[in-house]
Design a protein that fits this description.
This protein is α/β, with parallel strands linked by helices. Helices cover about 30% and strands about 15% of the residues. The strands form two sheets. The protein has an eight-stranded mixed sheet with strand order 1-2-11-10-7-3-4-6. Strands 5-9-8 form a three-stranded antiparallel sheet, covered by helices on one side. Helix 1 crosses helix 2. The radius of gyration is 17 Å and the shape is globular. About 40% of the residues are buried. The structure holds 2-amino-2-deoxy-6-O-phosphono-alpha-D-glucopyranose. 2-amino-2-deoxy-6-O-phosphono-alpha-D-glucopyranose (GLP) binds next to helix 5. The site of 2-amino-2-deoxy-6-O-phosphono-alpha-D-glucopyranose (GLP) has 15 residues, from helix 5.
């Protein structure tokens, strides 16, 4: 099948320092993010990149795989840092984020395994694991591009409410609302971990560029608080207002209250 790269150019508005683009639907949002990720990789083939898990980026990953197969992008030099991981799950556990990333993206593109910096979810020393991760990031970083989803409580990666801009990679206890929201991915009846390792808000704010994707009405409240509310640890994503180069990619429903 012939695949044509369709560039979607939509005007962005700036809200409290964040560039915001609202798309008609999920498909055009995903296409626009895909185009930009490809542009960034083609401009810097050894891009230091972080990508999210969850339902929101599914289409983005399909499009990235398709683009790779069409020769529009190569991940062969990309250096990837995992955003977050459940504590207690091994890399080959189908519920782990490492497994997710392999299944939906890495197994289908030419990324080198040695360029994937991931968390050991089975660590018995989360502090040590966090330091190891920080050291690797310091050596390779800063991150060129971090792509984020957003939780309904305003979390990014697993920086739950109570997270501050100075927070680094660490263990975090998941909020009940996050556990409930993510339970849908735990299909085989296995218990869902209540804690995780996450890149810190501080690490994210040090990235050169940040993209945040949201779709569906369930995210509208988190988005409006993030964009228009005060910088507050009760909505961790709101600290992105302090970042100099962040773009939000929203569909009409998640961007419902965006003025
Ligand atoms: C999880 C991940 C986040 C992700 C969020 C939103 O909590 N830790 O990185 O952004 O889910 O997921 P979804 O796209 O499924 O709404």
């Amino acid at each position: 099948m012939f695949f044509k790269k369709i560039s979607i150019n939509v005007e962005s508005v700036s809200i409290n320092g964040i560039k915001v683009v609202v798309f008609d639907d999920y498909d055009s949002l995903s296409r626009a993010v895909c185009d930009r990720v490809i542009d960034r990789i083609n401009a810097k083939p050894d891009l230091v990149l972080s990508l999210p898990t969850g339902g929101t980026p599914f289409e983005l990953y399909c499009l990235l795989i398709e683009s790779y197969k069409q020769g529009l992008v190569s991940f062969s030099q990309v250096r990837f840092f995992q955003l977050d991981e459940y504590l207690g799950l091994s890399k080959d556990d189908p519920n782990s984020y490492y497994y997710y990333l392999n299944r939906y993206l890495f197994d289908h593109v030419d990324i080198r395994r040695e360029n994937i910096f991931s968390f050991n979810g089975l660590t018995d020393d989360p502090d040590k694991e966090s330091i190891l991760y920080e050291n690797q990031l310091t050596r390779m970083g800063p991150l060129d591009l971090v792509v984020l989803g957003i939780g309904t409580n305003g979390h990014v990666a697993f920086n739950e409410p109570g997270s501050y801009p100075f927070c680094r990679t660490r263990q975090i206890r998941l909020e009940e609302s996050t556990i409930q929201a993510n339970l849908r991915f735990f299909s085989n009846g296995s218990p869902m971990p209540h804690s995780a390792l996450t890149m810190g808000l501080g690490n994210i704010l040090e990235a050169k560029e940040v993209f945040l994707l949201a779709n569906g009405s369930g995210k509208a409240e988190a988005i409006i608080k993030t964009l228009h509310g005060p910088n507050t640890e009760s909505v961790p994503a709101s600290f992105l207002q302090r970042h100099p180069n962040t773009t939000f990619f929203l569909d009409r429903e998640s961007g419902l209250f965006v003025s």
